[in-house]
Amino acid sequence: MNDTRRTRSVLGVLIVAALVLITVDYRGGENSPLRGLRDVGAAVFGPVERASAAVVRPVGNTFDAITDAPDQRRRAEKLERENQRLREQIRAGAIDAGRARQLDRLLGTAGIGGYKIVAAQVISAGQGFEDTVTLDVGSSSGVRRDMTVMSADGLVGRVTRVGPATATVLLATDAASSVGARLEDTKEIGIVTGRGRRGLGDGGGTPMKFQLLNANATLKVGQRLVTLGSQGDSPYVPGVPIGVVERIDRPEGGLSRTAYVRPFARFTSLDVVAVVVAPPKSDPRDAVLPPRPAPPPSPSPSVSPSPHKKTVKAKRKREG
């Protein structure tokens, strides 16, 4: 179509007419004089509009899905990171609560024994031939060589190397470890030595052994041991619980007996421990040992009726 003045005039008239019709229809509302014309238009062009929408809508939805995919992926990744952060917070909260309980028990144990301690955390375990662990405290915290290390349950070992911020502890289970010990009830003394890792793998969980200095002294399963203490309280302070006698070997023809000891401290799961930086003013003896568990109640014996009661019961039965 040529762009002539006449064409432009006709187009202008049509636009003005359309605007007039729209204005009249809008102002008329439901009573519009053009309502019939509007219904005819809807009947004619409605099916065409629905068919066009049916074709165009899936294409539009697909286009929207493609354009929104990166945003959806970013939102999913953000939610996953948030969930991971929340899981880590929950896990850290549980760990912190567990360590707080350990520290509370540790302070209670140290208070009973009269030990001045520096709390520490095990940060690594030795990978060599020695049974050692590394603590997160050192000389800057007042830790020195040959200091006793304990947990809330009992003896852990002694400090062998010290740095400004860390310390190495030789565990009491190491084969080179030797600790003076005293039996709880008889007060007999002897030496507790470590058996190394083989003591944890023998099925009995007894990584220590104990020999009395007096070969004729009483030695029984179930007796408990505490540290005897060293001269000058170094490397071991007195009264720290060591463990309980689990079994006793009596070699044929030999006078000495060897007792195998289950330690109170859990060496395979050490976490919060304490370095004793000052000994007690007096030997606590057995005060730090936990109370002995109550023995299980014995079954009450059945009481049989006496012969006299049996005779009376039989006589009444005959008279009846």
Automatic annotation (TrEMBL):
Cited Gene3D superfamilies: Rod shape-determining protein MreC, domain 1 (2.40.10.340), Rod shape-determining protein MreC, domain 2 (2.40.10.350)
Keyword Coiled coil (UniProt): yes
Function summary: Involved in formation and maintenance of cell shape.
Compositional bias per record (Basic residues), positions renumbered to this chain: 307-320
Rod shape-determining protein MreC beta-barrel core domain boundaries: 127-276
Superkingdom as given in the UniProt entry: Bacteria
Protein name: Cell shape-determining protein MreC
UniProt cross-references to InterPro entries, sorted A to Z: Cell/Rod_1, Cell/Rod_MreC_2, MreC, MreC_beta-barrel_core
GO biological processes: regulation of cell shape
Phosphoprotein recorded as keyword: no
Biased composition (Pro residues): 290-304
Region described as Disordered: 280-320
Keywords: Cell shape, Coiled coil
Source organism phylogeny: Bacteria, Bacillati, Actinomycetota, Actinomycetes, Streptosporangiales
Protein family membership: Belongs to the MreC family.
A GO CC term attached to the entry: plasma membrane
Coiled-coil ranges from the UniProt annotation: 69-96
